[in-house]
Amino acid sequence: MSLPPEKASELKQIIHNHLVKINIHGKIRDVLAETVRDDLEPGQNSLSERDFLRALQRRGVVDDVMKDLHFFKVDFSFPSPPANIDPARRYLYLQVQGGKAFLEHLQEPEPLPGQVCSTFALYLHFRNQRFRSKPVPCACEPDLQEGFLLEMHREGLGDGNKMADATAMLSISDPVHLVLIKTDTSSETSLVSSYFLDWRTVLSSPSGKTGVAVELLGVGESCKVPAGVLNLGLELYPPLTETLSPDIITTQQSIERQKTAEKERLFLVYAKQWWREFLEIRDSHRSKLVKIFAQDENGVNRPVCSYVRVLRAGRLLESPRQAARFVSLLGLERAPVVGGGGGVKQEQWCSLLAFLCRSKGDCEDHATLLCSLLLGFGLDAYVCVGTKAKGVAHTWVMTRGTDGTVTFWESLTAHRYLHQAIDPDAPPLVAQPRPSYPYRTIGCVFNHKAFLANCQPSDAVELCVFDFHNQSLWKAMSEEALGSVCSPGSTTSLPPLPPLCGPSLEPSAASNQLELEMRYLVAEHRKDLGLATVWDDHMSYVLSSALAAYELERCTGTSCGNEEFQDAVRRAVPDGHTFKGFPVHFLHRNARRAFATCLRSPFCDEIVCCRGDHVRLAVRVRVFVYPESACAVWVMFACKYRSVL
């Protein structure tokens, strides 16, 4: 095994330091003098190297040198993978070997021990498997050193337990999706890069190992600008008995690209023809929000139907309403725009993995995820593209019941609205339903295999009839044409669908920690005002049922448990005392940020700064965790004091 020059010099230095430490030169001189005096034959003028080494060995010098050296097998390119691998399965061991040329962090100072700094974390998805690296400080050359063991044929590729050979693996076009996330010192996340790695070059390596330097590009407006370089090592376990030639791999990749390009070209020709027909129906259709394509984080135009898939959450989510609650807990963030634009919105839809890893996105990301989850629960769900008040573009979700009822789901809040169409031809005295939803117009609806544009004379939501089989009301795209570019596996350009991950937070520990921090902040704030703080632990515990009821109401839309809470409070507050409580909801676990927000409310400030006779304070925190470690954080401040007239 040949070592890089820097490793060789490092190894020499280690050996030299060890020899100096045990005074090897002095021992050699003593042995040499003793050997010349005792072992040199009469008439022999010189001592051979072999005789001298034998003398060193005989006197135990070699053993002394060796016993303190601990040898272990080191491969500087490919550290050994975990030992718990199934010998009947094929694995790809992906080794991240550091980054370089992240020039945005060229001037980043070295973080001091214990100092909070911005970090990078790398997320991977491959064939229904997801991984995350440990966070490392942001730097021009970030120290991302991590190994990931990816199983090649989880779906039983081949015959049962038959090992997938090189030819079978060549047909696996699923890329390894890499997403790099930056987390700043205030815990805000941002998407640095999203990259699809074709790993199949390793199939031509005789040793089963290969290295690759991946240039990561930025996202959104910076999708053509390099963000940095990642050094990766790829290794197959067990190694292939027969490898493929590089030409075969290149040819396979070229054929896949050509097939994808041809399917996309044919769909574009069809979409243009469909659009011309739609415009011929009515001149006003030019102004309708009919969105057929959308750009992803890498600036690639994809049909909107490809952003929706049937997504089942396993045991992580129990009902459609809980799914809506989960999606609403992911943060809202508009795509950043460089410079002014007169309020023009930068368009950027995200692949699902990038959205989940960042834990925030625009309304389109929320709507496509919620629609995918509702489809997984067996509902007839669609994403709606239209406007809210003042003509602001917006997307939301709708479901159609078997009885014809139409329900709108707001993916940002988990609110649900029943749609009842207004009859514009009804007599003036006939009572018409008053819409409770915030939506004004609707241009089109779509899901994973349907796209329909609104052909009705008015695109007002309140007048809209959602009879998708009536071709005079809705113009549908061909399901076959959509399937050619949007169904899973139809083209190699479609990002694979990642599974949801369970929460990594332990809710009780997170609740206790945040509650202790809140107590400290309240006590310090009152101390600054010259007020003492006496806590009532029983009253704090009583507040738990209220917080549980609030979260249940957000999930199900029904209120319950309020009577028990009110009765418990009456028992906890003596006669002649006044009780005040203030609940508040957050999507983060930053105690200082939450407390500062609470103090902006005059109701909360009145409780925290309460003055009076026999004042007792209480605070209760409940952290409810959801998939992807999304959090609903409920905090309730309360006080009781003797009323003095």
From TrEMBL:
<dbReference type="GO" id="GO:0046599">
    <property type="term" value="P:regulation of centriole replication"/>
</dbReference>
<feature type="domain" description="CEP76 C2">
    <location>
        <begin position="84"/>
        <end position="240"/>
    </location>
</feature>
<dbReference type="GO" id="GO:0005814">
    <property type="term" value="C:centriole"/>
</dbReference>
<protein>
    <recommendedName>
        <fullName>Centrosomal protein of 76 kDa</fullName>
    </recommendedName>
</protein>
<keyword id="KW-0963">Cytoplasm</keyword>
<dbReference type="InterPro" id="IPR056288">
    <property type="entry name" value="CEP76_C"/>
</dbReference>
<comment type="similarity">
    <text>Belongs to the CEP76 family.</text>
</comment>
<dbReference type="Pfam" id="PF24656">
    <property type="entry name" value="CEPT76_peptidase"/>
</dbReference>
<dbReference type="InterPro" id="IPR028926">
    <property type="entry name" value="CEP76-C2"/>
</dbReference>
<dbReference type="Pfam" id="PF24654">
    <property type="entry name" value="CEP76_N"/>
</dbReference>
<dbReference type="InterPro" id="IPR056290">
    <property type="entry name" value="CEPT76/DRC7_peptidase-like_dom"/>
</dbReference>
<dbReference type="InterPro" id="IPR038765">
    <property type="entry name" value="Papain-like_cys_pep_sf"/>
</dbReference>
<feature type="domain" description="Centrosomal protein of 76 kDa C-terminal">
    <location>
        <begin position="507"/>
        <end position="642"/>
    </location>
</feature>
<keyword id="KW-0206">Cytoskeleton</keyword>
<dbReference type="Pfam" id="PF24652">
    <property type="entry name" value="CEP76_C"/>
</dbReference>
<feature type="domain" description="CEP76/DRC7 peptidase-like">
    <location>
        <begin position="347"/>
        <end position="477"/>
    </location>
</feature>
<dbReference type="InterPro" id="IPR056289">
    <property type="entry name" value="CEP76_N"/>
</dbReference>
<dbReference type="InterPro" id="IPR052299">
    <property type="entry name" value="CEP76"/>
</dbReference>
<comment type="function">
    <text>Centrosomal protein involved in regulation of centriole duplication. Required to limit centriole duplication to once per cell cycle by preventing centriole reduplication.</text>
</comment>
<dbReference type="Pfam" id="PF15627">
    <property type="entry name" value="CEP76-C2"/>
</dbReference>
<feature type="domain" description="CEP76 N-terminal">
    <location>
        <begin position="10"/>
        <end position="69"/>
    </location>
</feature>
